[in-house]
Every structure is written in C-alpha cells, then in structure tokens.
C-alpha cells in the first residue's frame, strides 16, 4: 500500500504514462538542491535555484549493486505541444548502492533547467543496473526516451522516481 501512495503523485503528474511505465519503488532516492532544498513530487523550483547539479542519494541496495540516474524534461519545447519530448538533462551511471551520484560515472553532464514556455516537469529516475559499466550515453539530448534508453541498456523498470516543476522566471521574480 505504501508503494501505491508513493506512486500517486507520479500518476497525477502524468510522469507514469508519458515518461515511465508503472513500477514498484524499491529504493529510496533523495534529491536535494543547494544543500537544503529537497525535491518532492510536483513542487515548484525557480530555474535560478537549480543551476548547480543536485545531490542525489541512493538509500538502498549495497556497494555491489549499481544504479543509473536519468534526469529528463518531457515537456520540450512546451507542455501543450511537447514534440521534442524528452530532453535529457543529466545521466550518471555506476552509482554504488548506499552512496550518492558523486560516486558514479557522469555520462551526460548536468544541464540546468531553462524552461521557455509553460510549466515543465523535471523527472529524476533511478534504475538498477545488471552490471557495472554497461550503460552507453544517448546520441543526443533531444528526442530522448527514458523507456528506450532503459531498453537499450538492459535496465529493468525504475526503482525510484521523483519530479519537480519549473517555469521561466520573469525579471521581477528573480530579484
């Protein structure tokens, strides 16, 4: 029942369906920006608050299990017509269980969110790898598919996911 409750915001936010298949969360992942801003499903962040890459902690598995983290924006160029879906912002592989993303291998460098039109969702997905150093980076950041990437790299269903919303900041809001 707890896993169903954890999935609900991902279903309501259409992350399940548009980005991911339904899955059973089995690992705890925490994503924190600027040391103290925890990412919770559906919360909004200003783009100026997410310029530097976040700390992503994997609380599950063990040092012998490895994980891949994918951060993607499924709302490119805008949520009403996301014809470039998805844009990949960050990929880190070979993250040992019970550590954080800094222990992994960054295969796509972090690109800070800069939404232009509407409210965009930025999704963090964690996959368990079958073995180490088996994940290949995508050819392009645009027209990325989290599902396709997982298939190509023989990653199973996700073990954790969380997303936040962001929209373009007006000059007045930046002050």
From TrEMBL:
What single Pfam family name could you report for this chain, choosing any that match? PBP
| Top-level taxon of the source organism | Eukaryota
Please give the Gene3D superfamilies that the UniProt record associates with this protein: PEBP-like (3.90.280.10)
- Classification of source organism: Eukaryota, Viridiplantae, Streptophyta, Embryophyta, Tracheophyta
In the record, the note on similarity to other proteins reads: Belongs to the phosphatidylethanolamine-binding protein family.
Output this protein's name.
Uncharacterized protein
Which CDD domains does this entry report, sorted A to Z? PEBP_euk
